[in-house]
C-alpha cells in the first residue's frame, strides 16, 4: 500500500484532506469507522441526560495517532455518531459527530512525534474539549443540572480511552512497524 508520508505543515487544510483521502485510505476509513461504531456500541453505560458512556475514545485516539488528523477526524466523528443512531440515541448524533470529530483532529494535528509527553498532553487537551462539548450538548438536550452530573463520567471515559488508545497504538505499531509512517509521527520502525 502506497502511503504519502509528507508532513503538511503549511496550514493548507484542503491539501491535508486531499492527501488523507485517496484510493488507499478510503477502505481504511470505512473499516476503522465500522470498528469504532461497534466499539462505541459494545459497552453502554446510561447517563442522566439520556445518553451513554462508552469506549469510543479508545478508537478515536488510536485512529488519530495512527492515521493523522483527517482520517482520525472522519473516523472519530462518523463511528460514534453512527453508534448513536443505531443504538437509539439520534438526538446525540450531530453533537457526537462534531465533538468527537474535533477531538480526533486536535490529537491528530498536534501529536507529530510519538513521545509520551506530547501524546498525553494533547490527548488531555482533546479530552477536555470533549467533556466541555458534551456538557454544552447535554445542557441543550436535557438541562444544565444533568449535564453537570455527566462531567465526571465523561472525564473518566476520556481518561480510559486515552490509556487504551495509547496501549493499542503501541501494540499495533510494534507488531506492524509500517504503521508509524501512516500517522506521520516522526519515529523509526522498532522505536
Order of helices and strands: HHEEHHHHHH
* Secondary-structure arrangement, i.e. CATH architecture: Orthogonal Bundle
What structural class do helix, strand and pairing data support?
mainly alpha
How many distinct beta strands? Answer: 2
CATH fold type: Arp2/3 complex 21 kDa subunit ARPC3
Q: Tell me about the biggest sheet?
A: 2 strands, antiparallel
Strand content: under 5%
Whole-number total of structural domains = 1
Low-confidence stretches: 1-11
Mean pLDDT: 86
The quaternary state of the protein chains shown equals single chain
Shape estimate: globular
State Rg: 16 Å
State the distance separating the first and last CA atoms: 22 Å
- Approximately how much helix is present in the residues? over 70%
Q: Can you identify the CATH class?
A: Mainly Alpha
Describe the structure.
There is one protein chain. It is globular, with a radius of gyration of 16 Å. 73% of the residues lie in helices and 2% in strands. The protein has a two-stranded antiparallel sheet. The chain is mainly α. It has a single domain, classed as Arp2/3 complex 21 kDa subunit ARPC3 (Orthogonal Bundle). β1 and β2 form a beta hairpin. α3 packs across α7 and α5 packs antiparallel against α7. The chain contains eight helices and two strands. This is ECF transporter S component. It comes from Bifidobacterium vespertilionis. Keywords: Membrane, Transmembrane, Transmembrane helix. One of its GO terms (cellular component) is membrane.
Topology:
Blueprint: H1 13-20, H2 26-42, E1 45-46, E2 52-53, H3 56-87, H4 90-110, H5 116-142, H6 144-149, H7 151-175, H8 179-182
Antiparallel strand pairs: 1-2
Helix pairs in contact: 2-3, 3-4, 3-7, 4-5, 5-7
Amino acid at each position: 500500500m502506497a502511503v504519502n508520508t509528507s508532513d503538511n505543515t503549511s496550514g493548507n487544510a484542503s491539501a491535508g484532506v486531499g492527501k488523507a483521502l485517496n484510493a488507499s485510505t478510503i477502505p481504511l476509513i470505512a473499516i476503522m469507522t465500522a470498528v469504532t461504531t461497534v466499539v462505541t456500541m459494545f459497552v453502554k453505560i446510561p447517563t442522566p441526560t439520556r445518553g451513554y458512556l462508552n469506549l469510543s475514545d479508545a478508537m478515536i485516539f488510536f485512529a488519530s495517532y495512527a492515521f493523522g488528523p483527517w482520517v482520525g477526524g472522519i473516523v472519530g466523528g462518523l463511528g460514534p455518531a453512527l453508534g448513536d443512531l443505531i443504538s437509539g440515541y439520534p438526538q446525540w448524533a450531530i453533537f457526537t459527530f462534531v465533538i468527537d470529530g474535533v477531538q480526533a483532529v486536535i490529537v491528530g494535528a498536534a501529536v507529530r512525534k510519538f513521545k509520551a509527553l506530547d501524546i498525553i498532553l494533547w490527548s488531555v487537551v482533546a479530552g477536555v474539549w470533549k467533556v466541555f462539548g458534551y456538557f454544552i450538548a447535554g445542557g441543550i438536550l436535557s438541562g444544565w443540572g444533568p449535564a453537570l452530573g455527566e462531567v465526571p463520567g465523561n472525564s473518566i471515559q476520556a481518561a480510559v480511552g486515552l490509556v487504551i488508545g495509547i496501549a493499542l497504538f503501541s501494540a499495533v505499531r510494534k507488531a506492524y512497524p509500517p504503521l508509524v509512517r501512516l500517522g506521520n509521527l516522526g519515529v523509526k520502525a522498532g522505536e
